[in-house]
Amino acid sequence: MTITVWACYVTYTIIQQFIAGHAYSVRLAIEAIVYMSVVTGLAASATAYLITRIGYFYRARGHQRAPRVMLDEFIGGKVPSMTVLVPSYQEDERTNRTTLLSAALQEYPGLRVTLLIDDPRQPRTRAARDMLLAARALPGKIEGELRVPFHRVSNAYAYFDEQVRVRGGYLVMIEDMRRLAEEYRYASGWLFDLGARQEIVDHTDTFFVEHIVNPLATELGQIANALHKGADEQVALPIARMNQFYRRLLAIFDVQMSSFERKKYVSLSHEPNKAMNLNSYIGLMGGAYQEVSTPLGTALVTAGPNRADLVVPNPDYVLTLDADSVLLPEYALRLVHLLEQGAFAHHAVAQTPYSAYPGSATRIERISGATTDIQYIVHQGMTHYGATFWVGANAVLRKKALDEICEVSYEGDWEIKRYIQDRTVIEDTESTIDLGVRGWLLHNYPERLAYSATPPDFGSLCIQRQRWANGGLLILSRLKDQFRAKSKREDKNRFGEYFLRVNYMASIFWSSVCLIVMLAYPFNNELLNPILLLISVPYFFMMAADLKQLGYKRSDMLRIYGFNLILLPVNLSGSIASLLQLLTGEKSAFKRTPKVRNRTTAASSFLILPLALIALCVYTIWVDIEHQLWNNMVFAVANLTLSLYAMVAFVGLGNTAVDLFTHLRNWLIRPVAPKRSRKRRTSKKQAITTAAPAGDWAQVLHYRHETGSAAGHTTVRLQRGQTGEWQSSATSSSQAHAFEEFSFFTVFQPIYNMINGHVSGYEALTRFADGSNPREALSSAAARGVHIALDAALIQAAITSAAALPNGTWLSLNTTADLLRHPHELARLLAGSRRPLVLETGDAEAAEVARLGGGVRVAVDDLDAGYETLSLIEQVRPAFLKLGLNSIAGIEYSGARQAAIRALVQFADQHGCTVIAEGIESAAQRDALVACGVPFGQGFYLGKPVPVERVLAGVGGW
Q1: CA-CA distances (angstroms) from residue 504 to 49, 501, 510, 705, 885?
Q2: Cβ(430)–Cβ(418) under 8 Å?
Q3: I want to staple 761 with a disulfide (CB 3.0 to 4.6 A). Which of 82, 656, 751, 826 is the partner?
Q4: Per residue in 686-718, pLDDT tens?
Q5: d(Cα 902, Cα 883) in Å, to the nearest integer?
């Protein structure tokens, strides 16, 4: 009906205005074109909704729910691994607890749940600090609660398994049935007790208890009764079914919970959005990492399993769950069971679009929830036409598919992985296109298994809806990429899919513009044909029927219309932000929806513009009466009535006045930060200027910050003069383009006398602030011809930092052969040390060592080739020989390797050389080396490389 009436109206208008000649002027012709465009835009949105609800009915009719026995059989086999990620930003502890509990109680074995805490690590208020501390402690508390029933059921299952094996491995007794029934009865009672302990503050808590915890407890109680009745009738279940029942019970409580804070690490992105919070953790999956202290903060670097501070498993599936959402207990199980079926092997995402919590207390929350529930119908219908979009609030993601759409970028030299796009603030929509380009499909499971909170006040709702309206236009052009990819794969491109996708991403913008144009401009009365009502009648009547079916009132359809009228400025601001991003290339600011009990102040423009809209409706009515435009007047009266109702019912006149007064006060009275005196600024500048020591042979300008987050941070700025000599950065500006700058810091690893357990020396190691490997940095410097100067700067910084090390220890410095071939310049560098020095080099020659003189000892690396190492000792005569990882690997088990090292130690001793073992990672390795006569050792087991201030604090030692 909608399409037919639209076609008839457009045809009639074209004939009337352009063929019959009623549009006899340019203005009238433009009016006719604009009005037909407006009608077409609104009709397209109405048609899209009517089409998707038909698809929803088809899917609901054809849905077949997997029976419980199939799910139990699935649990009984090898189940794919899953990790649940809950991104959280300054959430109330009660909100986080409800979400984490709903995730933990998923009937899924071996589940891992990680709370991704994105709160500022330096809270500015007591409330923010309390939120952060509570979020950190919460996963451990919940896991501790669940550990009690898990251990009980686990022990009962082990006892059952043992008894069955004693009977031959197949016989199940009646007593086994009764014991299993008791375990189910205990679990049921434990869950009822959990629901009774839940703090009830609002309807979300009531829903959690009445629709998640208590139904699960009731179901387990029913199973317990059934098992008891079966035992009374002397019926014993098969052993396979008994195992399934035990594993199901274990799956409810089998969960590992943890928290993760990306802002703790400088090597991860700190961009303020949910997508990068998720990306930071997903990018770590499948790796083992070590925490390394840098002047800029703690960094995560790849490490072996024995050295790792953080190990992140690589799951088969990832479930993302917003911190204000909950899942019914079978959510993960049903969706993974679906994805494991052969027909869904190419599906990357399975989800159930979230519904609103029923029973909301405020009018705006109820109407906002009604729009959310309507969107559930839309999303289900879009799946029928192959136009599914990933909804990020709750979704099961195939990790293999995420790896395929991963994009790698760099912040400095830190690798940043993006699985979920953050170019727009509706990140899941663009990621849907990425998956489609690579041939992956998405699926909406046609059951309501997920629920999410809606903003309780107008201020927080504006922030949410503005974010939703931003991004669709920006990524609309990417649909052509998916179209081309499908054509290349010879997949069919259907008009319905792309029509619905375009409507989903752009209809907020065009609908808002069309409504404003119709409200603001007095069109020619001939264009206002009464037949236009028939375009909107099916849309409004069908939506009213859907609202009734969802548990709302039919009249809520009018409330939703008024609700959308006052949200017009919000939607347009989001769309305009998207267009500005398209023009400038800069990302829009990500604004998180506030989750607070107190009311959020709405932006002044979102209050003034709806009032201006009401005033415009009044003015339009006055003009229409004067010009007798009765059709237009009816439309204006309807909009005036509904928008005025929406402002009173959903915003409140009192709240509007308070918010506007607050903005006016903040504009008039701004706190002024006290200005620093000119004298203080000058002295600070002088302090920085005089802090740099004089330049050395290479004219290296060396800055060192001794306090703050950049303590120990060294920057060298290297610059060639016209003669090719190295000069300081104080040369003329005409040569400024020739300088190279490197930022690094020095850490020290202790070298132990393994006989008495005392520290004899420290090896200075360089860590570059951008995370690059020192060898890579020197290679990069060599390509620019500055490697000798950079190596000298590294040695100078190490000697300066080592001044605070404990007395009586030597300092071991790494140097390149190139610098070693400049003994006079190197000697001037080494003269600045007040402690004994050892120079480590990998490819020293006897002549080069001799030129250093007798005051400096040399350490060389073994060649791991037997005779070559002995020849090196004999020719170079080093003071120390360092055994690498390859030489000591497996020494605790290999007698042959022990004999070889024992002989090497004796040969080195005869030539005045002392052996130092590197890379010691266990007590067994240390003891085996001591038994072979190796006196000195270093490695992560004995002491990790740490900055000098941590050395003095006793951190990192054996």
Answers
A1: 10, 5, 11, 53, 58
A2: no
A3: 751
A4: 333 333 332 333 333 333 344 444 445 566 655
A5: 12
**CA of residue 564 relative to chain centroid, distance:** 31
Cα separation, 283 vs 403, whole angstroms: 9
Picking from 929, 861, 862, 916, the residue whose alpha carbon sits closest to that of residue 890 is 929
Contact 254, 395 (CB under 8 A): no
Can you tell me which residue has the tokens 């073994």? 862
- Residue 301 Cα distances to 129, 281, 711, angstroms: 28, 14, 20
Beta strands in 183-276, from DSSP E residues, in sequence order: 255-260
Question: Quick one: pLDDT band at residue 796, thresholds 50, 70, 90?
Answer: confident
- Residue 744 β-bridge partners: 714, 768
Backbone φ and ψ for 836, nearest 5 degrees, come out as -60, 145
Confidence of residue 725 (pLDDT cuts 50, 70, 90): very low
> Which residue carries 């073992």 as its tokens?
917
Q: Which tokens hold the place of 20?
A: 């019959």
Q: How many CB atoms lie within 10 A of CB 600?
A: 18
- Count CB atoms within 10 A of the CB of residue 346: 11
CA distance 912 to 71: 72
**Hey, what amino acid is at 956?**
G
> Can you read off the two tokens belonging to residue 490?
């010879």
Contact between 449 and 331 under an 8 Å Cβ cutoff? The reply is yes
Mutual angle of helices 604-627 and 495-520, in 10-degree steps: 70
Query: From the CB of residue 741, how many other CB atoms can be counted at a distance below 10 Å?
Result: 11
Average pLDDT, the chain: 84
In this structure, are residues 422 and 269 in contact, taking their beta carbons and an 8 Å threshold? no
Q: In whole angstroms, what is the distance from residue 432 CA to residue 505 CA? A: 12
| Residue 327, phi then psi, degrees to nearest 5 | -120, 145
In this structure, what are the phi and psi dihedrals at residue 322, rounded to the nearest 5 degrees?
A: -65, 150
Strand order across the 297-302 sheet:
297-302, 287-294, 310-312
Percent of the chain with pLDDT over 90: 47
Residues in the chain: 958
Instruction: Please indicate, yes or no, whether the overall pTM of this predicted structure exceeds 0.70.
Output: yes
List Cβ neighbours of 720 (8 Å cut-off, separation of 6 or more).
726, 727, 735, 738, 785
CA distances (Å), origin 649, targets 365, 429, 654: 11, 32, 11
- C-alpha 792/C-alpha 820 separation (Å) is 10
Interatomic CA distance for residues 551 and 571, integer angstroms: 27
Phi then psi for 249, rounded to 5 degrees?
-65, -40
Number of helices (H) and strands (E) in the chain: give both, helices first. 35, 26
> Alpha helix (H) ranges present in 63-173?
68-76, 93-104, 126-166
Q: Are 763 and 749 in contact (CB under 8 A)?
A: yes
Q: Which of 449, 453, 446 is nearest to 327 (CA)?
A: 449
Q: How far apart, in Å, are the Cα atoms of 26 and each of 223, 434, 520, 749, 810? A: 77, 45, 20, 83, 91
- The residue among 873, 879, 885, 891 whose CA lies nearest residue 852 is 879
**pLDDT, tens digit, for every residue of 929-939?**
999 999 999 99
Task: Indicate the pLDDT class of residue 848, thresholds 50, 70 and 90.
Answer: low
